[in-house]
Structure formats: structure tokens, C-alpha cells
Amino acid sequence: MKPSKFILFISILLILSEVAEAQNFFPMKSGNKYQFGYYWQFHGPGGTSSGYSYGKYTIGKDSVINGQTFYKFNQTHLQLFFSMDEDDFLFRYDSTQQKLFVKIPNEDTVRLAVDFNVPADSVFTSYIKGSPAGYRSQGITIDTVFGYPVEIFKMTYNFYSENGSYTFADKFGLIRSDNIWWESTLNGSTSNSIFSAIIDSTIYNPIILEITDVHPLIDRPIDTFPFVLHANYSSSLPPTIDSFYVDIIHTRADTVLHQWRKEFSGYQVNVPLYPEMLEVGDIVKIRATITDESIFENVDHYPDSGYALINVLDPVTGLEENKSPNEYSLSQNYPNPFNPSTVIEYSLSEPGKVTLRVYNLLAVEVALLVNEEQPAGEHRVLFDADKFNLPSGVYFYKLTGGDFVDVKKMILTR
């Protein structure tokens, strides 16, 4: 290869490399999704209030204007840029100029939203909130987003505070917005921080949702209906859970007689089938479902497919006669191992003071579940380890009632 052609070849490679590594502070593509944590606080004559929730937005292709494609944001529980109707605002990112433009409702002129070229400490006029306002650039810095070191551009409209700002990340887009406002004796602020995203089909920090078990899903005698189902689930972001329910189908000879959808209350739900509704040989089909309202729109079932089948058996006989009327008992918890909750059942032959305590391997009490007068009969306690901030490990639960004392072991797995 001649030197002139070699130099030309190297120059082309360098140009292509620069193009490939060009900054993109707002990746515009239909279907890109972002999940934000949304924190707000309000101060007024009546006092101070605050809260934390979760919101999301997606980028959707809207229209072509003068040969240029503009996109709109579909937002849920968020006001990232504007205080008017967000569905009427259209945005376009020019990767050549490295500028974000906005078309404001009822205006023909396309306005500047962000100029990512403005050097640090310089002020420029932005229409990102719908009306012109001066913003101070903090220039380009390096930070980590979802584990990746990327270039960051930040701009503030309250020049003397970190509040009132927008922060953008190369290859990701908007990662944080802070807004402050005041009016007479009222003032407030909002803060939105990204914690999950789907950008160009790449998933960052996915939200995981899973039903770990439902019990007791066992064949059972007809005289043990109705009964309570217990369920365990896990989520990397519990507040996004939208619904948690169980479908119950009562069949006889392949004919559906009854069916319900019952919402779980916490970790349990009552199965609404009574002995008088049933015949030996009937089948009860059960399937639990949990959904969330994150950008991933997760759905998880238990069982994974189909239904768990519970066969209705002959009634239990002779148990009461064989059981001593003066007998106390403590049952093994279920499920075991568990995460994070389990059920402990016990029987009292007579009323009296009862305590149920949980200890760790060092015999240190970590939870007091029952400490009261209770009537004779069957009792059930739901033990939620999360309420006591307990780590994985082996624990013991001890029942004391009258002269009766019993201890059993259980295992918490995280």
C-alpha cells in the first residue's frame, strides 16, 4: 500500500472511530424505557409532608416535522421536564450538533432544550420546561451509571443550589432531575433518580419478581375445607407490585362448578370452599399470580404453568378420640426453610398465658411473637423475619404454656 493511501486509510479509521464514540446524551428510540424513584416534599402553613414512589417513562415515536423525527415521552407519576400536558411536548436529539430540541404545544418554532456543548459555568437559555429560563452548565464530568463509567452533563437553573437541575449521561439519557418551587408561604421540591432502564433492547438493573412457594397445596380431607393458603414472594423492588391474587377452580367430573379470583392479604388468602359445597373426588385447581407495574411489566405464576391440583379426600375420622384432651402441641413451621415468612401452628388444651419466642444460635431472643392469655384450641402465627431484620441462619422457636414447653428448629434462607 502506498504511503498516501495508507495515511488516507488511517484517517478514515480515525473518523469512523470518532463517529462510533460520539456522545449521545439522549438516545432517542421508540420503546426505550426508564424507571425512576420519585421523592417529593412540601412545606406550608400546615407543616411539612413528604413521600417516595416510583415512576416511569417510555419514548414513543410521534411524528415527522419538516423531515425531522420527533418523539414524545409517555410518563407515569413523573413530571421530568414540563408542567403542562406532557403528551403534547415533542423532543428531538441532534447527535451531530449534540443538542436536544423541543417543540412546545401550539407553537411552530422548535426550541432549544439542552446544548451539551456549553462549557462549565456558562449560561444558556433553555425551553426544557416550556418557557425560557437561564441554565448554568456544569460541563462534562465522568461518573458511573449502572456500573459503567460514562460522561455526565449537568445543568442547573438554581445557580446556588444542587436542587433545580438536570443530569444527563452519555448512552443513557436523563438520569436525574431535581425541581424546587416556592410561592408565598408555600414551597416544595421533587427529585427523580433513575434506577432501571431498557435502552436499545439492553436491560440495565432489571427488577426481579418471583413467587417462591404457595402452601399447603396438598390433597386434603373434605372436612378440612375451607383452609388458608400461604404464599411467599420476592421482589427486588416491592413497592412496584401491582397485584397478588390466586385463581381457584372447583371441578367435578371435568365440570367447573365454581371459580373465584381472591386477592392475597399480605401472604395469605382464604380458600372459599366449604364441606357442604364439595363431594369426595372433586378437584380444586389453584394458581397464584403476582404482577408489578415496572417498566418490565413482570408477571410470575405459581405453579409456573397450569394449576396445582388438590384432590378432595374422605373425611378424617377417629383423630379427636385418639387425641388427649389435655395435650399441648407445637408443630413444625411451614415452609421450612423459609424466606422471609413462615407459619407456626400450635394447640392448647386449656386457656392460659402463652409465650412464643424466637432465638438465634447463641440463644439470644430475637423476636417475641406471642405473650398473652389465649383460649384453648388451635392457633396459627405468621412469623415475618423482615420485621425483625434477621439475616439468614438457623433459629429456634419456643412455646411455653402452663407446664408445657417445646422447642423446634427453623431455617431462614435469603
Structure, described:
The chain has helices at about 5-20, 320; strands at about 35-45, 45-65, 70-75, 90-95, 100-105, 110-115, 125, 135-145, 150-155, 165-170, 175-185, 185-200, 200-205, 210-215, 220, 225-235, 240-250, 255-265, 270, 285-290, 300, 310-315, 330, 340-350, 350-360, 365-375, 375-385, 395-400, 405-410. Residues about 1-20 and about 320-325 have low confidence and may be disordered. The protein has three domains: about 20-205; about 210-315, Sandwich (Immunoglobulin-like); about 325-410, Immunoglobulin-like. It has two helices and 29 strands. It starts with a helix and ends with a strand. The protein is about 5% helix and about 55% strand. Strands 1, 2, 3, 7, 8, 9, 10, 11, 12 and 13 form a ten-stranded antiparallel beta sheet that branches. Strands 15, 17, 18, 20, 21 and 22 form a six-stranded mixed beta sheet that branches. The protein is mainly β. A hairpin with a 6-residue loop joins strand 7 and strand 8 (about 135-145).
